[in-house]
Amino acid sequence: MNAANSPAGALIGAVGLALGAAGPVMLLRARRGRKEIRTELAAQRITFPDHGLPARLAHLAGCPVETGGTAHAYAEFIKDHLVQATGGRTYAEITEELHATGHDDDKLAQLRQTAFMGETLRASLLSAYQAWHLTTLVAGLGALLTGTGAALVATATGLRARP
Fold it and tell me: Which pLDDT value is given to residue 131?
């Protein structure tokens, strides 16, 4: 029995076909995932202000938030504003202060609401950023599986061609 007709050769070919089929599916899912992230971010109509950005974000002035990278940058922009507005305190810390006053401080209650809204938007944008990275990972794995599958099919085909 030659290698081409062996169970190992058949297994190599079958695994190659399976990987060759799974890879493009992953690439397609990654592309659809990216499109969905872009669509959802664009629907929010978030745009960087034309002025007042920190130097590290100045290149994004007037740009819409439509990618994972811009979502991350805008989340950092919000973080800067939150730190400035709250003096670096978190929603939980401000809530604790408000409880200590017996919920009788309107300014603190308003600051807590600001912290809550800012941290919530920031978390949503960071989730989009993480999802963006996952689509990159899925696309990379899809390409790897496609290439590996093709190599295994070629190996199995080469084994069959050997006398």
Answer: 97
